[in-house]
Structures are given as structure tokens and as C-alpha cells.
Specification:
The protein is built from eight helices and no strands. It has helices at about 5-10, 20, 25-40, 55-60, 70-75, 80-85, 90-110, 120-140. α3 (about 25-40) packs across α5 and α5 crosses α7 (about 90-110). The protein is globular, with a radius of gyration of 22 Å.
Length: about 150
Amino acid sequence: MRVVNADSQRMTPTPSTTVVGRLAVPAGILAAVAGAFAYVGAVDPNQPGHYPVCPLLRYTGLYCPGCGGLRSAHAFVHGDFLTALHANAAAVAGYLGFALVWTVWVAHTVRGRPSRIDPAPALVWTLVALLLVFTVVRNLPFGGWFHP
């Protein structure tokens, strides 16, 4: 037989059970992303010498799906959304997708509900196919608008 003290049964809030404690990880992720965007916004990727050159573009002349991503982020930070889309439309979709997923994550965290990203395989394959089509089209002669 086990005797339990009534005081030991009371729950004291721990960092993982308080709203502030649960928001620590989403806040840290947001701080890291905001810091990265602030750096790219301050250090212009259009000026040579600040960032490394894409090795695929340098050695093959082909644009990878990430080519123009830094220029896109720089334009996005400065509110030039058309230039951001022109530099890398997939990156802009990624920024908006991150904002949506992060917002849902925070809403679930505040309510104390578990957050889990578990996309359907069809969604994953669709996104991969769209990224592949984007990459191929931006390297074709008629895909010039997608060149960074």
C-alpha cells in the first residue's frame, strides 16, 4: 500500500505547461527566421561578393529551384513583391507557406493542443511535382520571366 501526500498531487506549472513556456520554441523559430530576413534585407544579394554563387548555375548555367532566393527575400523584405516573385516565385510561395504553418502552430500551442505536421502523401508529391515543373520551365527559353 502506498501513501501519497496531498501536497504532492498538486500540479505546479512548469515551463512546458504554461502558455509562455509552450510558445518558447515557436518564438525561437520566428526569431531565427526574422534574423535571417533582417540580414538578407540589410546585405544586398544583388551586390557581388556578399553571398556564395550557386554551384549548379556556375558550372552548368542551369537555374536550380533556389536560384534567386536571396534576391527574392531581399525584395520581399523591402516590400517589392513583384520583384520578389520575379526573382524566385517558389521562394515567395515558401515564405507564405511558412507564415501559414507557423500561425497554425502558434494557435494550436496557445490552446494547448498538440501540433503535428503530417501532410498527405498526395500533397507532398504535388508540391514536389510543382517544384520540378518550376525548375524545368525556368530553364527553358520561354521561361525567361522565372529567371532571377
